[in-house]
């Protein structure tokens, strides 16, 4: 297992280096941030001073070398926009996104597994058709539309929850529900398909002939075997959320990593973009390792190599 | 069933909690803005609208303020001022004023505040805009009197001083301030650049106490959400709501902001170097047809690049009429004279600029194509658009170019528009006309009627002889004001929202 983890770390480090190079140079291809930070009628002297103070007057390779040197000291530099250390900004925003993502995903997994499993018990039955329609709809709805409509319905018309912002538990309800919809729909579809396969397999027929209770067959024997594709899809969805639930965070004014990255890209805040990408990539690496462990736990035939 | 009841009860509790929060009856208000207040450095507040919106005259006051009706200078921290020689202005300060940190407001404090604008480490944007190529020496005469001596004559000194915030002498000069301190009626008590900013009433304020006790500023990028926040009572004022959301005449108000839009013509290449083609570009636009359709009802077709309340505006200049036939004739005349009118022309635009900008651009392009010009739209992002607008301009453009742009002049004088956009030395000017330069220089160094007439004459020359642009509209913004408070926006509201002007009903 130790060898496996070391190998994963080496591969991830190689990917990370590629990512850093790509992000560093691509971001700088998009233009000089002085165009955004200074008024359009700024004098050439002010533009030159701005570039010099922020090291933007140096050749890009020199800038990259400086970045690498400071990175070795875990110094990601200062945000151009917020004039604070980039690492501090990213680490402050990250927990908000993690809470949003884990809450939405936990809820989505529970609902999808129960709904998908029950639907698979009677394919083409009423419950199955209902689960199909609802899950396909929720998987297809664009987040921005769902967010705006849910604000209109639950915050403006019904006044059950606040429209946006943070501060109380009530502020979390709409963002989590909006974020929950898409993965829940997708996962319900995967659980249903996977469970239909599992329920028609030989070991389930044997269990039924031995008189094992239906509930045990569905939720203990079949579900465990049907979980592998579910974990794969859930992991993929989770990566997307950790990358930043951008639309949800921007619309609801949630100070998470998605909103921070969105603003940083818009304002060419290079230090924050680089730091955000590296921290997010590390989190996704960690999550992928955990998913691999989950595979092994669920299926003893899978072994670390 | 019991579980369902428990969930419903929980939601009801949350609803009560949020409703209680919304129905706050205190003297506090919440203002929701479109963009984050990520910088609070007062020496950028004129050049960066959202900083000014929060700080100007709330936290940091100026020596002089402008009357929004006619842009005339009025006393604020200065009680009086006069020019004692061409280079020197004498300022008499108000007494019994304290900064919010306890420092005395006196001539030494004002000197420190003005000197701070020139501190190299701050890269002060307002200094760059107001004093480019200029140096100031501030000499205290006594505790409440000081002389401001400029290297070159500054007849606009009172207007310039209305745009400078006087900060406490304890404000750092080596880094941007994260806690600005001034003499205003409000103190900045908390600021989280990712979430909110809070101003609280300053007990030691020298003037009349405003009604608002505390103002919390939050930011949401989605205009419909900002409007909804006022509708449900989470906010009292929503800045810049979308025209389509401004549907309630009791709460939603349109106002002419200081922005004027135009298409700038780069006259360095054929066919745009031909004045007949530039006239045709103007005559081809039916400006009236945009009002109340693609643009909101309150926009005004513009005849020049400033509002009518700006000193130097020429009331005799009329908006270009719509005359497609004459435009077509001019294009054909140019073609007959050998001008390559079929050459592709690129117009740069960007969709962040105003509501329905895409529809506006497409209609403009279509109008020009109908008179026989080959104009194409190229959408670029903010950074690229900015780079096309200022010097140094690219010398080897592959095609003749135009660019859609907006400009705001809330400073009260034509100088702030015309020297930048039309004088040959202006950073945004692509005109080099010695006669025009002379007129503009005359305007910028004179005062009173002579000044106004010089700028008016320059405006006439620009729009009738040179025709370097397709002047479009004075633009409208919308604000939603909740039922608890009253506030009347004006053309300065984009860059300044004085909490003293907000009252409870």
UniProtKB/TrEMBL annotation, chain A:
<feature type="domain" description="ABC transmembrane type-1">
    <location>
        <begin position="94"/>
        <end position="291"/>
    </location>
</feature>
<keyword id="KW-0813">Transport</keyword>
<dbReference type="Pfam" id="PF19300">
    <property type="entry name" value="BPD_transp_1_N"/>
</dbReference>
<dbReference type="Pfam" id="PF00528">
    <property type="entry name" value="BPD_transp_1"/>
</dbReference>
<feature type="transmembrane region" description="Helical">
    <location>
        <begin position="98"/>
        <end position="121"/>
    </location>
</feature>
<comment type="similarity">
    <text>Belongs to the binding-protein-dependent transport system permease family.</text>
</comment>
<dbReference type="InterPro" id="IPR035906">
    <property type="entry name" value="MetI-like_sf"/>
</dbReference>
<dbReference type="GO" id="GO:0005886">
    <property type="term" value="C:plasma membrane"/>
</dbReference>
<feature type="transmembrane region" description="Helical">
    <location>
        <begin position="169"/>
        <end position="191"/>
    </location>
</feature>
<feature type="transmembrane region" description="Helical">
    <location>
        <begin position="270"/>
        <end position="298"/>
    </location>
</feature>
<keyword id="KW-0812">Transmembrane</keyword>
<dbReference type="InterPro" id="IPR045621">
    <property type="entry name" value="BPD_transp_1_N"/>
</dbReference>
<protein>
    <submittedName>
        <fullName>Peptide/nickel transport system permease protein</fullName>
    </submittedName>
</protein>
<keyword id="KW-0472">Membrane</keyword>
<dbReference type="GO" id="GO:0055085">
    <property type="term" value="P:transmembrane transport"/>
</dbReference>
<keyword id="KW-1003">Cell membrane</keyword>
<dbReference type="InterPro" id="IPR000515">
    <property type="entry name" value="MetI-like"/>
</dbReference>
<feature type="transmembrane region" description="Helical">
    <location>
        <begin position="240"/>
        <end position="258"/>
    </location>
</feature>
<feature type="transmembrane region" description="Helical">
    <location>
        <begin position="133"/>
        <end position="157"/>
    </location>
</feature>
<feature type="transmembrane region" description="Helical">
    <location>
        <begin position="9"/>
        <end position="29"/>
    </location>
</feature>
<keyword id="KW-1133">Transmembrane helix</keyword>
Automatic annotation (TrEMBL), chain B:
<protein>
    <submittedName>
        <fullName>Peptide/nickel transport system substrate-binding protein</fullName>
    </submittedName>
</protein>
<comment type="similarity">
    <text>Belongs to the bacterial solute-binding protein 5 family.</text>
</comment>
<feature type="domain" description="Solute-binding protein family 5">
    <location>
        <begin position="72"/>
        <end position="387"/>
    </location>
</feature>
<dbReference type="InterPro" id="IPR030678">
    <property type="entry name" value="Peptide/Ni-bd"/>
</dbReference>
<dbReference type="InterPro" id="IPR039424">
    <property type="entry name" value="SBP_5"/>
</dbReference>
<dbReference type="GO" id="GO:0030288">
    <property type="term" value="C:outer membrane-bounded periplasmic space"/>
</dbReference>
<dbReference type="GO" id="GO:0043190">
    <property type="term" value="C:ATP-binding cassette (ABC) transporter complex"/>
</dbReference>
<dbReference type="InterPro" id="IPR023765">
    <property type="entry name" value="SBP_5_CS"/>
</dbReference>
<dbReference type="GO" id="GO:1904680">
    <property type="term" value="F:peptide transmembrane transporter activity"/>
</dbReference>
<keyword id="KW-0732">Signal</keyword>
<feature type="signal peptide">
    <location>
        <begin position="1"/>
        <end position="22"/>
    </location>
</feature>
<dbReference type="GO" id="GO:0015833">
    <property type="term" value="P:peptide transport"/>
</dbReference>
<dbReference type="InterPro" id="IPR000914">
    <property type="entry name" value="SBP_5_dom"/>
</dbReference>
<dbReference type="Pfam" id="PF00496">
    <property type="entry name" value="SBP_bac_5"/>
</dbReference>
């Amino acid at each position: 297992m130790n060898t496996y983890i070391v190998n994963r770390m080496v591969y991830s480090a190689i990917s990370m280096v590629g990512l850093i190079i790509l992000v560093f140079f691509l971001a700088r291809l998009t233009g000089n941030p002085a165009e955004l930070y200074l008024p359009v009628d700024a004098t050439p002297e002010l533009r030159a001073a701005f570039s010099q103070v922020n090291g933007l007057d140096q050749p890009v390779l020199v800038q990259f070398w400086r970045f690498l040197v400071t990175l070795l000291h875990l110094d990601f530099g200062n945000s151009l926009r917020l004039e604070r250390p980039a690492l501090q900004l990213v680490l402050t925003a990250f927990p908000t996104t993690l809470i949003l993502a884990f809450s939405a995903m936990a809820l989505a997994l529970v609902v999808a597994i129960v709904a998908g499993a029950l639907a698979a018990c009677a394919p083409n039955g009423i419950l199955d058709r209902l689960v199909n329609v609802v899950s396909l709809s929720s998987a297809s709805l664009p987040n921005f539309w769902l967010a705006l409509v849910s604000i209109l319905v639950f915050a403006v018309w019904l006044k059950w929850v606040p429209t946006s912002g943070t501060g109380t538990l009530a502020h979390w309800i709409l963002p989590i529900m909006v974020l929950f919809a898409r993965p829940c729909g997708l996962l319900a579809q995967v659980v249903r398909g996977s469970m239909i396969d599992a329920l028609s397999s030989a070991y389930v027929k044997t269990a039924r002939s031995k008189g094992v209770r239906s509930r045990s067959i569905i939720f203990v024997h079949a579900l465990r075997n049907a979980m592998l594709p579910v974990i794969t899809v859930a992991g993929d969805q989770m990566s997307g959320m950790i990358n930043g639930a951008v639309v949800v965070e921007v619309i609801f004014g949630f100070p998470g990593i998605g909103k921070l990255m969105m603003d940083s890209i818009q304002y060419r805040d290079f230090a924050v973009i680089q730091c955000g990408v590296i921290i997010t990539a590390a989190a996704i690496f960690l999550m992928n390792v955990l998913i691999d462990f989950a595979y092994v736990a669920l299926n003893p035939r899978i072994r670390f190599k | 069933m019991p579980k369902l009841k428990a969930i419903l009860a929980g939601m009801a509790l949350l609803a009560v909690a949020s409703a209680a929060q919304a129905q706050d009856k205190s003297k506090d208000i919440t203002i929701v803005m479109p963009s984050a207040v990520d910088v609070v450095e007062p020496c950028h507040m004129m050049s960066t609208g959202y900083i000014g919106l929060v700080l100007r005259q709330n936290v940091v006051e100026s020596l002089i303020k402008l009357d929004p009706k006619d842009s005339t200078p009025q006393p604020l921290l200065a009680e009086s001022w006069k020019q004692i020689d061409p280079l020197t202005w004498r300022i008499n300060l108000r007494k019994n004023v304290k900064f919010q940190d306890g420092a005395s407001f006196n001539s030494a404090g004002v000197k420190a505040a003005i000197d701070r604008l020139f501190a190299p480490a701050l890269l002060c944007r307002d200094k760059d805009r107001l004093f480019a190529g200029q140096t100031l020496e501030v000499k205290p005469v006594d505790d409440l009197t000081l002389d401001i001596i400029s290297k070159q004559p500054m007849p606009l000194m009172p207007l310039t001083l209305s745009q400078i915030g006087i900060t406490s002498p304890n404000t750092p000069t080596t880094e941007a301030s994260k806690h600005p301190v001034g003499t205003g009626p409000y103190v900045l008590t908390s600021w989280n650049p990712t979430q909110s900013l809070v101003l609280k009433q300053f007990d030691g304020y020298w003037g009349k106490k405003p009604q608002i006790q505390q103002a919390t500023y939050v930011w949401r990028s989605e205009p419909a959400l900002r409007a909804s926040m006022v509708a449900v009572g989470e906010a009292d004022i929503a800045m810049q709501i979308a025209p389509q959301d401004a549907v309630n005449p009791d709460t939603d108000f349109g106002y002419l902001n200081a922005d004027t839009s135009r298409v700038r013509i780069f006259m360095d290449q054929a066919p745009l170097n031909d004045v007949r083609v530039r006239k045709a570009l103007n005559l081809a636009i039916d400006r009236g047809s945009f009002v109340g359709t693609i643009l909101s009802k309150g926009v005004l077709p513009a005849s020049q690049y400033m509002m009518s309340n700006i000193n130097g505006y020429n009331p005799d200049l009329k908006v270009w009429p719509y005359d497609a036939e004459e435009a077509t004739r001019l294009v054909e005349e140019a073609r007959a004279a050998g001008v390559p009118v079929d050459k592709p022309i690129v117009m740069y635009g960007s969709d962040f600029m105003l509501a329905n900008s895409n529809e506006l651009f497409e209609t403009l392009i279509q109008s020009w194509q109908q008179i026989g010009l080959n104009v194409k739209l190229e959408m670029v992002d903010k950074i690229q658009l900015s780079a096309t607008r200022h010097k140094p301009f690219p010398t080897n453009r592959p095609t003749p170019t135009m660019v859609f742009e907006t400009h705001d002049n809330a400073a009260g004088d034509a100088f702030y528009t015309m020297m930048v956009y039309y004088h040959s030395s202006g950073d945004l000017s692509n005109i080099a006309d010695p006669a025009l330069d002379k007129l503009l220089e005359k305007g910028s160094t004179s005062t009173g009627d002579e000044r106004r007439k010089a700028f008016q004459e320059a405006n006439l020359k620009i729009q009738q002889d040179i025709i370097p642009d397709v002047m479009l509209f004075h633009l409208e913004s919308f604000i939603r004001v909740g039922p608890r408070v009253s506030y009347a926006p004006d053309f300065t509201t984009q860059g300044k929202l004085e909490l003293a002007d907000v009252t409870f009903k």
